[in-house]
Design brief:
The chain has about 110 residues and is of the alpha+beta class. It is built from three helices and three strands; from the N terminus they run ααβββα. It has two domains: about 40 residues, no CATH class; about 60 residues, no CATH class.
């Protein structure tokens, strides 16, 4: 089955935000179909490797009719066998992309 040219044209016209949303949708569909692989995973996490995710956030306030809020950017990395995260904010700037995973110093 080939992909319709009009669909390809529409995907190419999407901005970065909508492309990431499309990526999340496609990953979810693959998992539902039994694909358990993560395309960005290259095996064990490399030291200093940081991945970025755009995520919606539930505020937890009773009666909030606007949840989820965001989406907001988060950085994730492995440290001492655990996954750590850092809130970045609404925008991911080139400075944040230079973020290195902190090293454990004891």
């Amino acid at each position: 089955m080939s992909i319709d040219r009009e669909l390809i044209r529409q995907v190419r016209a999407l901005d970065q935000y909508d492309l990431r949303r499309l990526q999340i949708l496609v990953k979810g569909m693959l998992v539902q179909q039994g694909d358990q692989t993560e395309p960005e995973d290259d095996g064990p996490a490399k030291p200093g490797k940081v991945s970025y995710r755009l995520e919606p956030v539930n505020c937890g306030k009773p009666g909030c009719s606007r949840c989820p809020h965001g989406p907001y950017w988060y950085a994730y990395w492995r440290e001492g066998g655990r996954v750590r995260s850092k809130y970045i904010g609404r925008r991911l700037t080139p400075d944040e992309l230079k973020l290195k995973a902190p090293t454990s110093s004891g």
